[in-house]
Amino acid sequence: MAEKAKGKMEQAKGKAKEVAGKATGSERMQAEGKSDQLKGKTREAAGKAEEKARGIKDSLSDRRQEP
After folding, report:
1. Residue whose C-alpha is closest to residue 14's, from 44, 46, 49
2. pLDDT confidence of 66, banded at 50, 70, 90?
3. Average of pLDDT values for 24-43?
């Protein structure tokens, strides 16, 4: 859950940076914003995959404990 939330926050930060870059005419800031958004999406996807893997692991553990 933490990685997923961090990813969302990083995406929001990146979007704000991109908008600020557009407003000021800074191509560098726009590029950094887009990069931050991509990093955030990657982090969010990793968090989702981790949650899914944990769910599968828990499901398998539950099956082993059944009589």
Report:
1. 44
2. low
3. 97
- The predicted model scores a pTM of 0.77
Cα distance between residue 63 and residue 2, in whole Å: 27
Q: Supply the pLDDT for residue 58.
A: 76
Q: Would you list the DSSP string of 11-33?
A: HHHHHHHHHHHHHHT-HHHHHHH
Q: Which residues contact 55 (CB under 8 A, 6 or more apart)?
A: none
51 SS3 class? helix
Query: What phi and psi, each to the nearest 5 degrees, are found at residue 29?
Result: -65, -35
Instruction: Report the alpha-carbon distance of residue 59 to residue 64 in Å, rounded.
Output: 9
Residues in the chain: 67
